Amino acid sequence: xxxxxxxxxxxxxxxxxxxxxxxxxxxxxxxxxxxxxxxxxxxxxxxxxxxxxxxxxxxxxxxxxxxxxxxxxxxxxxxxxxxxxxxxxxxxxxxxxxxxxxxxxxxxxxxxxxxxxxxxxxxxxxxxxxxxxxxxxxxxxxxxxxxxxxxxxxxxxxxxxxxxxxxxxxxxxxxxxxxxxxxxxxxxxxxxxxxxxxxxxxxxxxxxxxxxxxxxxxxxxxxxxxxxxxxxxxxxxxxxxxxxxxxxxxxxxxxxxxxxxxxxxxxxxxxxxxxxxxxxxxxxxxxxxxxxxxxxxxxxxxxxxxxxxxxxxxxxxxxxxxxxxxxxxxxxxxxxxxxxxxxxxxxxxxxxxxx
Length: 355
Ligand code: SF4
Ligand code: SF4
Ligand code: F3S
Hints:
- The chain has helices spanning 7-13, 18-31, 38-48, 64-70, 75-84, 98-111, 140-148, 159-163, 198-211, 224-227, 231-234, 238-243, 253-256, 275-278, 316-319, 322-328, 334-353, and strands spanning 52-58, 85-89, 117-121, 124-125, 134-135, 138-139, 153-157, 176-177, 188-191.
- With 355 residues, the protein is α/β, with parallel strands linked by helices.
- It has a five-stranded parallel β-sheet with strand order 2-1-3-7-9, with helices on both faces. A two-stranded antiparallel ribbon has the order 4-8. The chain has a two-stranded antiparallel sheet with strand order 5-6.
- Helix 16 (322-328) packs antiparallel against helix 17.
- The radius of gyration is 21 Å and the shape is globular.
- The N and C termini lie far apart (63 Å).
- Mean pLDDT is 84; it is low at 316-355.
- The structure holds iron/sulfur cluster (SF4) (2 copies) and FE3-S4 cluster.
- One iron/sulfur cluster (SF4) is lined by residues 231-232, 235, 237-238, 241, 260-262, 266, 268-269, 288, 293-294.
């Protein structure tokens, strides 16, 4: 097999200017809170990298995660990421179907043994022998095991894949579990969100390509660059929170004045994601800016983690579900997950007291 070309060569051939390439690297490194000097190193690393083979598996999911990546309004970022990777298998985007599609997956695995990245969206149903979701005669569990066997790393995108998400919501009729529970001996990165921010997906893959190593992760295996701070930490309504100015209903005077949505059920204080700064739709807005509280879509326990409109202060009982759900799901960092969840609960009850 001929060695694939260097990314720098490929991009030059496609007319991507050095300036555009540097702008991409500098935008990515700033999103990831890397020092300014990292932009040049990132551009150099990317230019010397080879196109990365990516096999994308979709299990119990709604296609929202891949829609998030492809419907992004920042073509300069996300179009470029598709120049950097060779998406060798992806149900929603690939032209091949049936046996040809499965052949493409197995070819990519053979040709890139030990080097390809497996991206997964959706959880895996374990109930009743896995019959609730099958592809090409394989249960999701079988396909995952076969595909990750020779992978370099596994990236679980979306809350369904990272933590169980919506399919795992009580009563979890399919016995859904997150990807990490079924992967042993391979590095796993979780990029939660329902759906996840496209920049977090693109940024993580860019960093692996440019620097040849995984980004720094937190206890839940999320890249710190995108999940290191809570929505509340970066929220522009925080001054209203501090002054005790809370909207009491979605159409009252406080709501019209843009006051804090805490008492309308905002889960920003216990939700770690970068929506408040990265924002959605090409930087246009994010839920809180549109007048709706954060519903904690990127946290373990989403969807069971408390009512959408119930304030955290009154959610003590439902929020306690976070610990047993994460533990029951067997998130491989079990102890770390439970510890973090307990810390969050402690934080939530403090926030609940507004101290
Ligand atoms: Fe859909 Fe959300 Fe699950 Fe992604 S995380 S597959 S958007 S339900
Ligand atoms: Fe923003 Fe919600 Fe925190 Fe209020 S509670 S400051 S709306 S994140
Ligand atoms: Fe989800 Fe909250 Fe962001 S609901 S999209 S993590 S603001």
